[in-house]
Amino acid sequence: QQQQQQYRNWGLIDLTGRHTQSRDSSPADTDRTSTSNTGSVISSDSWSVNTGPSWTTQTRNSLNTTDNKPPSFQDFNRLLENCPHASEGSWTKITNKYSSSSEAREVRLRAEKCRVDIYNEKRSERDRLLADQIRDRLSLLDEPPVLDDTPARLDTPTPSPPPVDALPPLTDDIESAVSRALHPHPAEEVVADAFRLQITRRDVQTLNNLNWLNDEIINFYLNLIVERSENSNKLMKVHTYNTFFYPKLESQGYKSIRRWTKKVDIFSKNILLVPVHLGIHWCLATVNFTEKQMTYYDSMGGTNRRCLETLKQYLQDESSDKRNQTLDFTDWTLNYPRNIPQQSNGSDCGVFACQYGESVSRGVPITFTQDDMPYFRHRMIYEITNKCLMV
Question: Residue 334's closest CA among 304, 355, 359?
Fold first, then answer.
């Protein structure tokens, strides 16, 4: 009985392949253990294991039956290979299965290591740029400053620093509305319907905590920016593409999206917003017809030159198709700014992309930081559910 319990603990019953009663044993014999010259039978009400004499002897010699600890992997492997009742190749199948799992884990670990290396490389590059900027500024102090003895005029105004775009506060009423919108059930209930888009409670949950924003949230928010520009005489006119535009343009070319602008003249706008999804990372590309600039905003400091070159060719094709004229890019510049707010986690890229577009559409400096992300997530929930931007 003690040996029977150890076999149960070690899992030998499942691996030997004998889960039925011995054909030679009667019901009266199912509760006892018998031994003969041909081997030993370990039986119970629901199972029996027949072992040959050589394997039984090897088991007793190799395993300490008085020890409750399981055998080592090497002993266990050797015993199962010599077991006469194990199916041929069964142990090889088991080891191959777990070897495949181990190889898959190694592949994932290598992929994660590559991601860490890329992040560290970008971080090191940012640190080097910051060190160069600090060095340049400190070099100004190498020479003693020249003091001006001319008395200052009292009526000379002191220049003030550029104003920082103040964030409107989220009142208690707003926070209460946000809490109601974040209630997860029923998940498919529509909480906002506009621009031929419907936002459900499931979509709103992507703005909760550190979740990744989905296409519906980003498309809806960028359309709120467009609507605001159309209803204002002071703001630049904006057109936005949805999140499926750029992947289709890049993979299938201009003909695949030629009809997407049949009801809008993009050249009559001041700003074009193009959300760019890089698999697990959101960025934003903009086209400024007024300043003749194309800019790629990446909250992780990337420079996607292929993106702006693709959009440049798109504008050329669109101009030839819709206006029958060539677009002159002689005075245009392609920008990849690095002095923009950067994210410090792996989940806020969608919020950064939306807020880049919000600031660019108003022509104001981009002054928010990573610390503002919880604020912007709640503010975006309120703006989406109310179908109106707060600023």
Answer: 304
AA identity, residue 233 = N
Q: Which two tokens stand for residue 140?
A: 């100004």
Q: What span, in angstroms and rounded, lies between the C-alpha atoms of 89 and 82?
A: 11
Give the per-residue pLDDT at 118.
83
Report the greatest alpha carbon distance in the chain.
118
Return left, alpha or beta for 177; rule: phi > 0 is left, psi -120 to 50 is alpha, else beta. Answer: alpha
Backbone torsions φ then ψ of 49, nearest 5 degrees: -125, 115
> What residues pair up with 72 in beta bridges, in sequence order?
none
Give the CA distances from residue 319 to residues 93, 254, 264, 291, 313, in Å, rounded to whole numbers and listed in that order. 62, 12, 13, 18, 10
52-67 burial, b at 16+ Cβ within 10 Å, e below that, comes to eeebbebbeeebeeee
pLDDT along the chain (391 residues), means of 10: 61 47 44 43 44 52 55 66 65 69 78 82 74 54 43 45 70 95 92 94 94 96 96 94 94 93 93 93 95 94 91 94 91 93 92 96 94 96 94 84
CB half-sphere exposure, 338, CA atoms < 13 A: 12
What per-residue confidence (pLDDT) applies to 56? 54
pTM of the predicted protein model: 0.59
Quote the tokens at residue 173: 């009423």
Active site residues: 281, 298, 349
